Amino acid sequence: MHPYPLVLRSRRTVTPRGVEEAAVVVRDGRIADVLRPDAAAARDAEDLGDLVLMPGLVDTHVHVNEPGRTEWEGFATATRAAAAGGVTTLVDMPLNSVPATTTAAALAAKREAAGGQCSVDVAFWGGVVPGNAGELAALAAAGVRGFKCFLVPSGVDEFPHVGERDLRDAMPVIARLGLPLLVHAELPGPIDAAANAASFCDPRSHASWLASRPRAAERQAIAMMLALCEETGCRVHVVHLAAAEAVPLLSSARARRLPVTVETCPHYLSFAAEEIADGATPFKCAPPIRERENREVLWAALGAGVIDLVATDHSPCPPALKRLESGDFFAAWGGIASLELSLAAVWTAARTRGFTPANLARWMCERPARLAGLEDAKGAIAKGMDADLVAWDPTEEWTVDAAALNQRHKLTPYAGRKLVGRVRRTYLRGELVYRDGQHVGSVQGRALTTR
User: Fold this and answer.
1) Which residues, 6+ apart, have CB-to-CB distance to 200 below 8 Å?
2) pLDDT in tens, 290-309
3) Residue 291 φ/ψ region, left for φ over 0, alpha for ψ in the -120 to 50 degree band, beta for the rest
């Protein structure tokens, strides 16, 4: 740590009050003060000018995959990508690692794998699978921030999906633990009903993939989860919302003060199904990227607070699993790689809709930190918080060069896309870890498994 305070001044500092000119004083890894620009210490600060100074992003939906599938992505590469994208804390999903994080022993293996490799801080979600309700208290005691489940097959055998009976076993336990249950909210019934029709369509067409995952699968799953939430009192978080039809259900749940939160992802806010070319399997994800009109409903719901936050669902894989040669959407692995690009991708779309950096800080820093129970240290520029900071240029236009990305495999649907907003510096507890395209300093990320 610095033996003397680090002071950073920006005319666009994003604090809980909004965007203002301020100087941030850092001492011993924490924010010691946030000063008016005319304060004596502020005059001696390092001047960031018109760069936006914002809390480091908290990405609560990242598939690191280590141990077991480190050839897909690992802690070293994922956290370097995070730092380059201004993400200072990520929360790792309980799959697709082997073993899946469904027991305390599996969590210990994951922590050991992460040791000494992380460029940013890492926390962990546990998993809910059939028959592991008895493991949940031990996972909570070992430090998971909450639990994740699938209502449809996850794509990997070691993380099977759950049904309503399994949820009735697990949700009262999770409610007593006071932690959230994160849900991949699609039900098999509507998907099975669509499967016969979709099987006669061109597998290279994204429209075929879209038809195979109908909006009703999301809407019915969310309706079921809201009923179980009301019955059990368990906090429910809907991950990667893609279907506009679910927004009224969620708005009603909020009006009834149910403990429900919702996320969507940069790809649902950036892309539209009509623009996806035949065979363009890097765009495959589940739920699928939907149409333009659906995207605009998601933006309206995000602006209105019905959708709470934005997280990447960074889920990379080796290029061969994307079936680039055949372009078969049904055979390809479903996952979008975007950890390093999330700030720029969301800002590019948000700025044209009248949103500001203060909105981004709410969606990508403050509310994700609260979801993961990290709000006492992460997600805001305020006295006493960890000095996790990102300075970024909100006006710089640039084109994504996939080969230059820090993720293990360089495949992303954002390749060649023009974005606005460039990360210039990333600080972890006041230490500079990334500057103008270069990682600096030593690896110093921590595993956040204490409460």
Assistant:
1) none
2) 999 999 999 999 999 999 99
3) beta
